[in-house]
Design brief:
The chain is mainly α and 521 residues long. The chain is 72% helix and 1% strand. It has 21 helices and two strands. Strands 1-2 form a two-stranded antiparallel sheet.
Length: 521
């Protein structure tokens, strides 16, 4: 009866989200011809409210809401690097995204690789940026399925016969695939409103129950400290050790730099109605960070409550805590909210990957004269392929393989930062040096992560007592060093750099729609 109530409430939430996605077209009627701008960027018309919901819903994924508390459950204080990291993102986004939007609008760019192609005049560099984005996005997309699986397992919706849970995941992604295929970015935009309400309400209710159970935040940490000090309590610590501090700081900074380079984040940014919209959204993003911090607290609460997750499944800590503290119907609603949290970023990721492929691989190298209608048709097909690939990836490989590849994806995507963020403000770096630096960073970062057993932090410096820092940031330092040295040498030799096709004017040539903040998706 209890599992039936959980499943019924869960399906009610998923059904409501699916219905919204299926009706996304009714929120925006237009008589314009099909275009990649319309399908992938919702005609660049999202107002402040919709952009805040969609960008927040894309940054803060279902796996984030299970992995961060899972890391807190298993590793303690180090997990809270995610809080300063998402705070650091806000001022960086406030500076970078409006300027990038303006240049993209002025020149009709749809992807960040379009910008790199025009800005640096280097097709190989643009191809490297596009392929890096696609490569880094695919395991990230697969992780959304892992977040759903953790919820289904903890809630008893996925019984011992795992085929049932797998079928639920396939059905969920099938519905998402159909909605995204038909309506593009508008489908996750509409669902993001539902996600925002569901996630905020769920975490506030759960935190209230936890604080009531333990008598306040102090009681949570006292009980967690006692549990960790007991025999068999694990090696997690509620305080950072001196050796962990460089890793904590570099993880926060490196993750913030990497996040803004992901294609799905930039796709949502390009879909905003204007620079002013993006600035308002960046000011409001800390609201989502507060939710993430509360989820981290729930990981500590799981330790305090004596939750015991299966070996290697720390991400199940919060779903198991929900199942323990909440009545069955409410637990089902929370599980549904977390699952909807996976659908929004998964849809945006598939749209972003498909758009990058069409614009920067298919049109550039396969079919340069493809009509807008054909580009949309190919993008729809690729978005479906991306989702099918994510499902096959999760079913065909161990969960840890997806996590390992996502760790590498964060290291890889950070290596396009010089070409994008630095290139947005200066053309001093030579395109060939940028490409060489990208290759050096990719190779160095991959070797370091694999050599350390797919650890996100690696020793950086002479052997012995080298501090451990985030592998992506270490690779970026190597990347930047190669870019500087390479640019100096290429300029000294007088090597041509390619045409300058992009103006740094901050005023779009085509004026956007009025930014009322209430534009519909």
């Amino acid at each position: 009866m209890t599992e039936g109530a959980v499943a019924a409430a869960f399906l009610a939430v998923i059904g409501a989200a699916s219905l919204l996605a299926a009706r996304a077209r009714r929120f925006h009627t237009t008589g314009t011809l099909p275009s990649l701008d319309g399908w992938a960027l919702a005609d660049r018309s999202l107002g402040t409210g919709w952009t805040w919901l969609l960008l927040g819903g894309t940054i803060f994924t279902a796996y984030t809401f299970t992995a961060v508390p899972g890391l807190a459950y298993g590793n303690g204080a180090l997990a809270f690097f995610a809080v300063p990291y998402t705070v650091i993102v806000c001022p960086m986004a406030f500076v970078l995204l409006p300027r990038l939007w303006a240049v993209a609008r002025e020149h009709g760019y749809i992807t960040v690789a379009d910008f790199v192609r025009g800005r640096h005049g280097s097709p190989p560099l643009a191809l490297a940026v596009a392929l890096t984005g696609i490569l880094a996005t695919m395991p990230y997309l697969a992780l959304q399925l892992l977040g759903i699986r953790a919820v289904l397992d903890a809630g008893g919706i996925n019984p011992a016969d795992t085929a049932t849970g797998d079928l639920v995941m396939v059905v969920l992604f099938a519905g998402l695939a159909v909605a995204t295929y038909r309506h593009g970015l508008r489908a996750p935009a509409v669902i993001s409103g539902f996600k925002g309400v569901a996630v905020f309400a769920s975490v506030l209710a759960l935190v209230w129950l936890v604080l009531d159970e333990f008598g306040g935040p102090g009681g949570v940490f006292d009980a967690a400290g006692t549990a960790l000090a007991a025999p068999g309590g694990g090696e997690a610590s509620l305080l950072l050790t001196p050796d962990q501090q460089p890793a904590f700081a570099s993880l926060a900074l490196g993750s913030a730099l990497a996040l803004l380079m992901y294609p799905h984040i930039l796709t949502v940014s390009f879909a905003a109605s204007g620079p002013s919209t993006l600035r308002k959204v960046c000011v409001g993003l800390p609201g989502w960070t507060a939710v993430l911090a509360l989820f981290g607290l729930l990981g500590i609460a799981a330790v305090a409550a004596g939750v015991r997750t299966p070996a290697g499944s720390a991400e199940s800590a919060v779903p198991m805590l929900v199942d323990r503290l909440m009545p069955a119907p409410l637990a089902g609603l929370v599980f549904g909210a977390i699952t909807v949290g996976a659908l929004v970023p998964a849809a945006v990721m598939s749209v972003a990957a498909a758009t990058s492929f069409v614009r920067n691989v298919y049109v550039e190298y396969v079919h340069p004269t493809a009509t807008p209608k054909r580009q949309v048709r190919i993008a729809k097909a690729v978005s479906l392929t991306a989702k099918v690939g994510a499902v096959a990836f999760v079913f065909g490989l161990r969960d840890q393989a997806a996590i390992n590849l996502q760790l590498l994806g964060g290291v890889w995507i950070l290596q396009i930062f010089p070409a994008v963020a630095i290139g947005l403000y200066t053309r001093w770096p030579h395109p060939r040096a940028l490409l060489t630096g990208w290759a050096a960073g990719m190779g160095f970062g991959t070797v370091m992560v694999v050599r350390e057993g797919f650890s996100p932090v690696v020793p950086f410096g002479p052997s012995g007592h080298s501090p451990e820092i985030y592998a992506g940031l270490a690779a970026l330092l190597v990347n930047l060093a190669v870019v500087v040295v390479g640019t100096v040498l290429l300029r000294w030799r007088g090597t041509p750099r390619g045409p300058d096709a992009t103006s740094l004017s901050s005023r779009p040539a085509v004026q956007p729609r009025p930014e009322t903040g209430t534009s519909s998706p």
